[in-house]
Write a structure and sequence with these properties.
Oligomer: single chain
Helix content: 40-55%
Strand order of the largest sheet: 2-1-3-4-5-11
Number of helices: 13
Largest sheet: 6 strands, parallel
Strand content: 5-15%
Amino acid sequence: MAITIKDVAKKANVAPSTVSRVIADNPRISVNTKKRVRKAMKELGYHPNVNARNLAVRSSQSIGVIMPSSAETALQNPFFPEVLRGIGSIAHDTEYSLYVSTGGDDSQVFEEVKRMVFGNRVDGIILLYSRANDPIIDFLVEEKFPFVVVGKPYNNESSITYVDNDNVHASMELTNHLIEFGHQQIAFIGGTTDLMVTRERLLGYKQALATANIPFKEEYIIHDEFLRSSGHKAVEQLFALSTPPSAIVIADDMMSLGVINMLEAFGLDCPEDVSITSFNNLYLSELTRPPLTTVDIQIYKLGIQSAKCLIEQLKSKDEPAKRVIVPYAIKYRSSTKKIN
């Protein structure tokens, strides 16, 4: 015999309408009542009709997650699985599913976002990047669709909810570490120039040089994708210069792995010949030889906070825009060395 809402209500000693509201995750129902009803559901083996519930509350119970590029490329960088793990932990706790974009190029991703929104496939969206002049953000703002950005928005900062680190200050601190070790010829390897995280980290690097009265050299700046192969190309370019750098600030650990490998191919040692500092504190950063001095940006927590902010928006249409800054910490390891 099929178990019904009435059976659950009787076992939990509540009204059937209360069971329905618990299934719909009504915020007005007390935590204790929710626990009692869910315990009764579990003991009776009752599973609500999710499709019927979603139709009734006009909810998909899904969160859209948008990558900065195709999933195939993005998932080569461990940042994305880790931030997804953080988002997924909150989604699981709040009974939401994740709908991850798999579009190939920018136009395909944009079309997929439109399908998510107009097809009622998701209740809200998390963007795992912040880019200058992004049509997706403009579209979501225009449609007044709930969304959160991981990264500082290019514009409308005060009206968009976002989760980020203080990338400018972190980059200043990282560059200052190299300056304090006696380095004057310091290069910067970052992501593409349209990404706000690249702009913020480059700005911090420039500010540290200016404060130390070290001339800024345009030829010391390299921009590419956050991939290991990009680190290879950067080394070829930097060490073809007449005065190559003695230290490098690198905006991503995956790039750093490529740099270290390519330095070996050039007959150079890290940190004996070149000191390296990096960002993200991926699990690989401790396993490299040498282990990387890198900024721990707490990737998992970025995911958790972005999901929490979005769920708050979904529960209350009047939720104000928020700026959540996740603290960072520099992990000093063996990839930097003082010079005379």
